[in-house]
From TrEMBL:
The keyword Oxidoreductase applies. This is Ferredoxin--nitrite reductase, chloroplastic. Residues 219-366, 471-580 form the Nitrite/sulphite reductase 4Fe-4S domain. It comes from Spinacia oleracea. Residues 13-36 are annotated as: Disordered. Pfam families: NIR_SIR, NIR_SIR_ferr. Keywords: 4Fe-4S, Heme, Iron, Iron-sulfur, Metal-binding, Nitrate assimilation, Oxidoreductase. It is an enzyme of class 1 (oxidoreductase). Pathway: Nitrogen metabolism; nitrate reduction (assimilation). The gene is NIR.
Length: 595
């Protein structure tokens, strides 16, 4: 339920910049992920003593890059071997991408070194070769602090994908950023220059790296119910990680990817419980800062919710503690089995107190305060709706949330959105974690005209059907080589079928992911679908999904449980209808019509 307004805290970016410069466990089936007393939490309760040798950094600096020491190279995974042969950031910092871009794919495939550049190292530049399903084409992931973009940036991205015809498209992701598809290698150097010209970068967004810092910025600066404007924090974190888009090799050689978020409101849109580091607003001795949660992640073999580090940092130490934690992870993290390289595995091994100590000793003053009891997030908060038209705190202005079906856009649609943002708003667009887009700063006198725009009438509705509102889907097998099933078109089709079977009166969040990597975050959904292969009624192999139920977000977060395994995709609609009737108060259409 709503609460009394909270005075917003808007930190000084100048001050921050100055400071930053100075009871179940996982099931072995590999797909069941539940909220529980995590292994890390159990370990933290009794932190074992750690052998001093284990705390020796496993990497060292050589010629400006961080390299795994020879004595720690036994049993490392293939990705680590590729990094040892050549640091991936050299493709950017030393402009190796320009030479690579002159090669044909046939020439690339003749050399293991060049192949590793294409399939592995380019991920550090945000480029992912789609070798399995889209040979010679790349997905490019942009870094978009706060999910805020401009009409100019949107037009530029549209111009990039437009030249690729049916191979080119864009997706809004669950980390509030853009992914563009269809990119070919010869175009990459010019695309990188074009991104820089409009204030964008793709550094570093790939494998074994720091991902986009999430914040609730798609509503910030516009509503009364905010705790803190997180934009200065996330911008500074991104500037540190990318060295202002020049590349920062001191923290790019991580054992595995690393996801942060900065919480700025009671809504918890950022899903702090599934991030490696979550900044939770709290005051201490009259000073604003953040308590820290650590270790949340999804993977094929294990899913864990973040747990308290028992630490509080002031606003001035947001960047330093991020740096300290990244360095601890870089120095000590496991680099063997890829399924055991996320930061929570390191926390498990060391114990929370020892891990905390490693972060603390990497802080500028080697001091990390204990957590505060003065948390600012209200536990009983009802998450706000953002689709549709909503008044801003600025008099005479509103923001309009648009539903982007499963986050997929074509070039002409992006161009239209850019035009709409200019004509009706301030030229700004805000991307959300549910793969939707908000147009802020619309004068109230222009609302009716905006709502009558053909794009909103025909494609991106501010008022979508209730089951479409919370629909999220990963890329799926159309473009992703790891996906087992097609997701985006199927998510829409199954939802349309379900809408014909039942009537619902409240939003239900449904997430689709094509494989157990769970990029679609099915474990936090009310109903989740994880792709798998199964057999139909005739015993023939077919695409299917494991169905999850019960994921919760917000202060009372909970990872969902398996409801039914290996359901053929063609049989999903009645299964979903049954769940909606039994657990979400839906009414069968035939009964509704009879009444």
């Amino acid at each position: 339920m709503a609460s009394l307004p909270v005075n917003k805290i808007i930190p000084s970016s100048t001050t921050l910049l100055s400071s930053s410069n100075n009871n179940r466990r996982r099931n072995n089936s590999s797909i069941r992920c539940q909220k529980a007393v995590s292994p890390a939490a159990e370990t933290a309760a009794v932190s074992p003593s750690v052998d001093a040798a284990r705390l020796e950094p496993r990497v060292e600096e050589r010629d400006g890059f961080w390299v795994l020491k020879e004595e720690f190279r036994s049993g490392i995974n293939p990705a680590e071997k590729v990094k040892i042969e050549k640091d991936p950031m050299k493709l950017f910092i030393e402009d190796g991408i320009s030479d690579l871009a002159t090669l044909s794919m046939e020439e690339v495939d003749k050399s293991k070194h060049n192949k590793d550049d294409i399939d592995v190292r380019l991920k550090w530049l945000g480029l992912f070769h789609r070798r399995k399903h889209h040979y010679g084409r790349f997905m490019m992931r942009l870094k978009l602090p706060n999910g805020v973009t401009t009409s100019e940036q949107t037009r530029y991205l549209a111009s990039v994908i437009k030249k690729y015809g049916k191979d080119g498209c864009a997706d809004v992701t669950t980390r509030q950023n853009w992914q563009i598809r269809g990119v070919v290698l010869p175009d990459v150097p010019e695309i990188i220059k074009g991104l820089a010209s409009v204030g964008l970068t793709s550094l570093p967004t790939g494998d074994g790296q720091f991902k986009e810092p999430l914040s609730v910025t798609f509503l910030q600066g516009m509503t009364l119910h905010e705790i803190v404007d997180t934009r200065p924090f996330t911008n500074l974190i991104s500037q540190f990680v990318t060295a202002n888009s020049r590349g920062n090799p001191s923290i790019t050689n991580l054992p595995r990817k690393w996801n942060p978020c900065v919480i700025g409101s009671h809504d918890l849109y950022e899903h702090p419980h599934i991030n490696d580091l979550a900044y939770m607003p709290a005051t201490k001795n009259g000073k604003f800062g953040f308590n820290l949660l650590v270790g949340g992640f999804f993977s094929i073999k294990r899913c864990e919710e973040a747990i308290p580090l028992d630490a509080w940092v002031s606003a001035e130490d947001v960047v330093p503690v991020c740096k300290a934690m990244l360095e601890a992870f870089r120095d000590l993290g496991f680099r063997g089995n890829r399924q055991k390289c996320r930061m929570m595995w390191l926390i498990d091994e060391l114990g929370m107190e020892a891990f905390r100590g490693e972060v603390e000793k990497r802080m500028p003053e080697q001091v990390l305060e204990r957590a505060s009891s003065e948390e600012l997030v209200q536990k009983d908060w009802e998450r706000r709706e953002y689709l549709g038209v909503h008044p801003q705190e600025q008099q005479g202005l509103s923001f309009v949330g648009l539903h982007i079906p499963v986050g997929r856009l074509q070039a002409d649609e992006m161009e239209e959105l850019a035009r709409i943002a200019d004509v009706y708003g301030s030229g700004e667009l805000r991307l959300t974690v549910e793969q939707n887009i908000i147009i802020p700063n619309v004068e109230n006198s222009k609302i009716d005209s905006l709502l009558n725009e053909p794009l909103l009438k025909e494609r991106y509705s501010p008022e979508p059907p209730i089951l479409m509102k919370g629909l999220v889907a990963c890329t799926g097998s159309q473009f992703c080589g790891q996906a087992i099933i097609e997701t985006k078109a199927r998510a829409l089709k199954v939802t349309e079928e379900v809408q014909r079977l039942v009537s619902v009166t409240r939003p239900v969040r449904m997430h689709w992911t094509g494989c157990p990597n769970s990029c679609g975050q099915v474990q936090v959904a009310d109903i989740g679908f994880m792709g798998c292969m199964t057999r139909d009624e005739n015993g023939k192999p077919c695409e299917g999904a494991d169905v999850f139920v019960g994921g919760r977000i917000g202060s009372d977060s909970h990872l969902g449980d398996i409801y039914k395994k290996a359901v053929p995709c063609k049989d999903l609609a009645p299964v979903v209808a049954e769940i909606l009737i039994n657990q979400f108060g839906a009414v069968p259409r035939e009964r509704e019509e009879a009444e």
